[in-house]
């Protein structure tokens, strides 16, 4: 590239110089000067470039030659290195081949050596770890021993000082006793001289001991032998002093013993002395006995008089004690009435068991029992904690015989120092609620039919055995009765055949699956009638156990279909002359899977008994003022029904004629309470056969019924007994109900067609 540029520059500069010089000879003036300058410049540039090119070419040639030489040397060096490497590679390959041939033998030997190395390494590590552990243990022991030695020396110093202090106390006590003995007049002169010397010895010993105590505090103890030597050194002095004094005392005592023995030997013999002593004692005893007997003889009269006085005093004391005991007892009630006996038992209990005196004042009867008033002046300011201590409350209940589930209670009047015991013997008489007053706050049973006649979509709820099915049956037949029996009832009852089956009418379905099918039929009928505007007959669907059917969605997702159909039927049924009664237990719609309160706002809601109170408590569409008013009505109606059922001995769960009520929540307006009719107040066959088209049939049935009655009378006149039993339960208790018999068994209550049996 450089050469091309170089030759181009030389050629261009030469041409420029030649053209410039040629033009300078053929032109005049300024052009001549310019062309001449260009020609000279071009020629100069060409010559300069040529010279530089020659110089550069020579330099390049030298560098190229030098580079070629170095390149050859390097090539030779690399060739030698490559040759050496090739030889090494060949040698390694040959070694590899040799090793591969001996691979198995070498691997086995290496494996054995490796195992031996691993075993030795493991043994080495174990020895090292044990060694480290022993070293640490020894270091701890050494450290502990060092501390123990130091602690032992310090404790030795302390115990040595304590020992010397006790010795000093002993010496000081001995010193004081010797000084006191020195001042005693009974001590002889010789003994006093001995005491003076002994006192001086002890004083010196005390001084030495004081110096030793000071010395031991500052003494540097390096060995326990030093301490022992120091203790033995001083203690020897202490014991030497004691032994010296003991020797002196022993010699003195021995001298005194010898003197006493000599005096005793020269005195009266012991046997003679004892005989004389006994004779003297016998003489003294005789004299004392004579004087005592004379004294007894002289005082017999006084003694007998004294005994009489003592006996009289004891009799007076006993009499006074009995009087005090009687006066100390609480004042009791007079007479043998129940209240007097109870009052005395209670006051006796508190006096004997707790020591409190309750004086009876009065008793008076109350609406539920009686009150007993006691004075407490002898035990002023008694409190309930004092009177009701322990199991006193249970004892009072036993003594008073109060009503089961109640306890007597005390009330206090501290101004008059009295307490009043109140005893409950019976329940308070409930204020009679007039039937007329109750009729003002509910729809009485005689207006039930007119109140419900226009209902088409109804939600009925109650707890288990709350009477949902009988109420639904009465409601359905009351609705059909206003329509003269024209129409159709389709009943779906998943509880068919159970103990609580009170329907006694034809059923279109008897399972939860039938409930789903029936709801589908209802919705299909709605769709068909919405497409045809003809005058369709009324159809009333009844679905029992709706909540349970919806709840089965958890096991069968297809049952969501049932829930959706229920919601659809609630919105559309009234437009196509179709009625529906939905029966369940939960008055709170939110507890039903997938349902809400608003879903049931398109139906009249009928909540029986306790469900009425629950619905009011959770209601969101009733103002607080109206809710308070309705809850007050609910309480009064509940009390009225409970009172009536109690008076008549009726069980709300089993007796068809018990007093029952429900809360009706209409589509518009405030909820209202209604009295529910007796179970089986309506007969399906009577209601459904009252249509105008079946009038002739009714006439024929009436004629047949009259004939049957005449035949029955003839049979009875012939003393032929006709046996009639309930086909459901076998009961022989029944009554006539139109063309059907009604079972009077409270657990059954079903009806069946009349027929005779010979």
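Sequence proposed for the structure above (758 residues):
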């Amino acid at each position: 590239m450089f050469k091309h540029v170089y030759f181009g520059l030389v050629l261009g500069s030469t041409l420029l110089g030649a053209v410039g010089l040629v033009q300078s000879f053929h032109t005049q003036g300024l052009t001549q000067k310019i062309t001449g300058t260009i020609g000279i410049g071009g020629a100069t540039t060409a010559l300069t470039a040529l010279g530089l090119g020659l110089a550069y070419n020579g330099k390049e040639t030298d560098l190229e030659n030098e580079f070629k030489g170095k390149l050859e040397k390097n090539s030779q060096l690399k060739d030698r290195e490559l040759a050496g490497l090739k030889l090494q590679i060949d040698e390694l390959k040959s070694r590899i081949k040799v090793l591969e041939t001996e691979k198995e033998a070498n691997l086995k030997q290496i494996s054995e050596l490796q195992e031996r190395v691993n075993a030795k390494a493991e043994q080495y590590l174990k020895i090292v770890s044990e060694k480290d552990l022993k070293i640490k243990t020894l270091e701890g022991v050494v450290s502990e021993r060092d501390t123990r030695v130091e602690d032992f020396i310090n404790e030795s110093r302390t115990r040595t000082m304590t020992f010397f202090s006790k010795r000093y106390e002993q010496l000081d006590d001995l010193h004081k006793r010797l000084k006191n003995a020195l001042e005693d007049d009974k001590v002889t002169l010789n003994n006093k001289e001995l005491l003076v010397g002994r006192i001086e010895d002890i004083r010196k010993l005390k001084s030495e001991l004081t110096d030793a105590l000071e010395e031991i505090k500052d003494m540097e103890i390096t060995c326990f032998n030093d301490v022992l030597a120091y203790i033995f050194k001083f203690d020897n002095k202490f014991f030497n002093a004691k032994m010296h004094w003991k020797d002196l005392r022993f010699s003195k005592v021995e001298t005194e013993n010898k003197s006493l023995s000599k005096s005793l030997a020269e005195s009266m013999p012991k046997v003679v002395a004892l005989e004389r002593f006994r004779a003297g004692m016998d003489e003294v005893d005789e004299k004392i006995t004579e004087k005592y007997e004379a004294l007894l003889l002289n005082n017999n009269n006084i003694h007998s008089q004294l005994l009489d006085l003592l006996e009289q005093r004891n009799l007076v004391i006993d009499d006074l004690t009995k009087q005090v005991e009687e006066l100390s007892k609480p004042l009791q009630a007079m007479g043998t009435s129940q209240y007097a006996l109870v009052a005395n038992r209670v006051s006796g209990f508190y006096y004997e068991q707790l020591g409190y005196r309750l004086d009876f004042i009065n008793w008076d009867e109350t609406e539920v029992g009686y009150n007993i008033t006691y004075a407490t002046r002898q035990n002023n300011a008694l409190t309930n904690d004092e009177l009701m201590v322990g199991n006193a409350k249970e004892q009072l209940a036993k003594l008073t015989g109060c009503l089961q589930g109640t306890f007597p209670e005390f009330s206090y009047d501290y101004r008059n120092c009295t307490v009043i015991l109140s005893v409950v013997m019976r329940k308070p008489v409930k204020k009679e609620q007039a039937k007329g007053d109750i009729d003002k706050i509910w729809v009485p049973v005689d207006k039930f039919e007119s109140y419900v006649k226009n209902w088409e979509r109804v939600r009925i709820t109650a707890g288990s055995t709350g009477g949902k099915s009988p109420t639904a049956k009465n409601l359905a037949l009351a609705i059909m009765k206003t329509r003269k029996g024209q129409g159709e009832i389709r009943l779906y009852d998943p509880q068919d055949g159970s103990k609580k089956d009170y329907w006694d009418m034809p059923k279109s379905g008897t399972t939860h699956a039938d409930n789903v099918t029936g709801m589908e039929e209802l919705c299909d009928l709605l769709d068909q009638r919405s497409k045809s505007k003809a005058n369709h007959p009324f159809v009333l669907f009844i679905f029992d156990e709706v909540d349970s059917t919806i709840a089965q969605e958890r096991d069968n997702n297809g049952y969501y279909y049932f829930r959706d159909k229920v919601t659809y039927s609630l919105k559309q049924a009234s437009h196509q002359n179709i009625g529906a009664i939905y029966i369940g237990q939960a008055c709170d719609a939110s507890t039903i899977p997938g349902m809400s309160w608003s879903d049931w706002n398109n139906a009249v809601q009928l909540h029986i008994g306790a469900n009425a109170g629950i619905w009011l408590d959770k209601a969101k569409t009733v103002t607080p003022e109206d809710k308070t008013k309705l809850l007050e009505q609910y309480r009064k109606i509940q009390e009225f029904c409970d009172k009536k059922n109690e008076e008549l001995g009726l069980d709300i769960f089993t007796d068809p004629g018990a007093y029952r009520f429900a809360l009706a929540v209409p589509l518009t307006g405030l909820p209202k309470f209604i009295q529910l009719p007796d179970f089986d107040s309506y007969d399906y066959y009577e209601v459904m056969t009252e249509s105008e088209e079946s009038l002739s049939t009714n006439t024929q049935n009436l004629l047949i019924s009259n004939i049957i009655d005449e035949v029955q009378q003839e049979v009875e006149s012939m003393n032929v007994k006709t046996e009639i039993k309930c086909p459901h339960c076998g009961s022989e208790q029944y009554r006539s109900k139109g063309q059907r018999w009604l079972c009077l068994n409270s657990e059954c209550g079903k009806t069946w067609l009349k027929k005779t049996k010979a």
